Amino acid sequence: MSDVPHGLTKDQTRKIARLARLALSDAELDKARLELSAVIGYVERLRGLDLEGVEPLAGVTGAMRRGEGDGSDEPGRMLPVEAMEKMAPAMRDRFLAIPKVLDDGGSA
Amino acid sequence: MASDPTNVREIRDGVLARQVSAAEVTRAALMGIARSNASLNAFTQVFENRAMENAARVDARVAAGDRLPLAGVPVAIKDNMCTGPDLWTAGDGFGYAGLTTCASRILENYSSQFTATAVQRLIDAGAIIVGKANMDEFAMGSSTERSIFGPTRNPWDESRVAGGSSGGSAAAVGAGLVPLALGSDTGGSIRQPAAFCGVLGLKPTYGRVSRYGLVAFASSLDQIGPLTRSADDAAIALEVMSGKDALDATSSTHEPPRAAGLDSHDASPLTLGVVRQGRSGANHPSVADALERAIQEYTKLGAKIVEVDLPLIDHGIAAYYIVAPAEASSNLARLDGVRYGRRAALKPGEGLEDLYARSRGEGFGPEVKRRIMLGTHVLSSGYYDAYYNTALKVRRKLLGDFERAFETCDALLLPSTPGPAFKIGEKTDDPIAMYLEDVYTVIVNLAGLPALSMPAGLADVGGKKLPVGVQLIGRMFDEARLLSIARRFERATQWHAARPG
């Protein structure tokens, strides 16, 4: 499987994992490289099709009538904070807690 | 009990006629699950207490004269549909709560605070949710082996898979534990397990059933549908679930199909298109036999049989494995360990990006990671046109092929799967072999059409009988006709009445 055409390099695989925000071990990266290369090799078969002038179709809702919503722009129901608290992995006061994103700033 | 516990209509009619109570039906279903679930592993959770409480409420409503269309019908819900408490009803209503795990580490303790619209509509119609059904993690798989709860086993042969990703739903109906289960179908995840477990599985037209509260996999392909013992029961469930939902902008305003309306199609002339590519030499002999016998059966029933070409079937899997992972990589980005779900314990010095990457790295299983990475790759700068856009063009062409076929045909006939249920472990090491399980089903999702798999024969494999399904594909929003065509086959063949063991 290592010499499949369109094979990814380990660096490419690492870059994809980084873009996808997935922390992978070295062994996982090696396995992902081989498996992704195999799948990418498989989907290459689409290149043989004549698709000249064909419009891409992202979904079939467009094939139906557009603007089928109820037309209103009223705020709907929302989850109460108490419900959010039951799902959240970490809260402080009534807010979701995450690691600090910025340093203290202006410390100079 | 007078009514057949595997028949939605009989249970409903029995409860409404007060011949049997919802409490009795529910207790019997819970006992069956308690007996069989250890070996089948079809359920991830069972709502014993809540189900009995809600059954008593349904009995009270029936006593008060409520003609509930699913009165007392026990239902299993695939574990990617949210079941929450009642936040918006005054007083204690019919909520279930429990967990919604998607069979994933990252959501193993996730307790949704709201209920999926499709599930709520069943509850409002008097159905009793008895539990959540096992599945492949995030509905990514064709065998229900990739679940943190372990594989679901096929009720016809426990050494074999139940199919996937709605394997728990299919096994629960196939084993007779519930008469109705909900599954979701992104590329075949209702129809393939239905075929493997000997039940009917319907993927409705895209937009027919609200996706609100269904954990998103590929939003332009996902659709919720019923698994039942018969076309009639599927029609009853579909009627209840269908229709516009303000909480899902893609849900359709089309009139829900009426279960009572199947009859109006029964007498109309029928032209069935047999898909030439479905008569592949690669099919298992039992699949080829079932298909040819189905053609003969429909001929006897007076149908005109024509052959149609869907040349892009051979490219369907390739297009699907670009579109579906692309959408999944975007949808699953919301699982970041911040608002809900698993959060990794960070080491000193690690920041927000580590929190995302570590929570996701620990929380997702190998297949989910593979698809997220595949989707990330095909959408990344420099590859978007070569992969994603190309797949969308294939999608357009495929829809055109279907539209041409439906100019002359009322429905198309082809296999549901290339073969009967395979052994547990047989395909786990070869992603592409697993993907090819869905060769006859993914094309339907790409085109947004309704389709069903129905029992059409039994294979004899290693001394065991295994069910084989055939698939019918219909025009957009033509589920009533599709189910009527299936019902004619059921009445003529009785394959749907075959039971394991």
Describe the structure in your own words.
The complex is a heterodimer of chains A (108) and B (501). Chain A has 3 helices and 2 strands, in the order αααββ. In chain A, a hairpin with a 2-residue loop joins strand 1 and strand 2. Chain A has a two-stranded antiparallel sheet. With 108 residues, chain A is mostly helical. In chain A, 32% of the residues lie in helices and 4% in strands. Chain A has helices spanning 10-19, 26-43, 81-87; strands spanning 91-92, 95-96. The relative contact order of chain A is 0.09. Chain A has a domain at 10-46. Chain B has 501 residues and is an alpha/beta fold. Helices cover 39% and strands 15% of the residues of chain B. In chain B, helix 10 (313-331) packs across helix 12 (366-379). Chain B is globular and about 75 Å long. The chains are: A mainly alpha (108), B alpha/beta (501). At the A-B interface, helix 1, helix 2 and helix 3 of A face helix 10, helix 11, helix 12, helix 13 and helix 14 of B.
Summarize the structure.
The complex is a heterodimer of chains A (108) and B (501). Chain A has 108 residues and is mostly helical. Chain A has three helices and two strands; from the N terminus they run αααββ.
State which percent range the strand residues of chain B make up.
Answer: 5-15%
Q: DSSP helix count of chain B? A: 16
Biggest interface, residues from each chain: A-B, 57 and 75 residues
User: Considering DSSP H and I runs of 4 or more, what fraction of the residues of chain A is helical?
Assistant: 25-40%
Jot down its keywords.
heterodimer, A: 108 residues, mainly alpha, two-stranded antiparallel sheet, 3 helices, B: 501 residues, alpha/beta, Amidase signature (AS) enzymes, eleven-stranded mixed β-sheet, two-stranded antiparallel ribbon, globular
What topology emerges from the helices and strands here?
The complex is a heterodimer of chains A (108) and B (501).
Chain A lengths: L9 H10 L6 H18 L37 H7 L3 E2 L2 E2 L12
Antiparallel strand pairs in A: 1-2
Chain B lengths: L7 H9 L5 H19 L2 E4 L1 H16 L10 E5 L38 H8 L3 E6 L19 E2 L2 E5 L5 H8 L5 E5 L6 H7 L2 E4 L20 E5 L2 H11 L21 H4 L4 E5 L9 H16 L3 E5 L4 H19 L20 H12 L2 H14 L5 H24 L2 E5 L15 H5 L6 H6 L3 E11 L2 E11 L4 H15 L8
Parallel strand pairs in B: 2-3, 2-6, 9-10, 9-11
Antiparallel strand pairs in B: 1-3, 4-5, 6-8, 7-8, 7-12, 11-13, 12-13
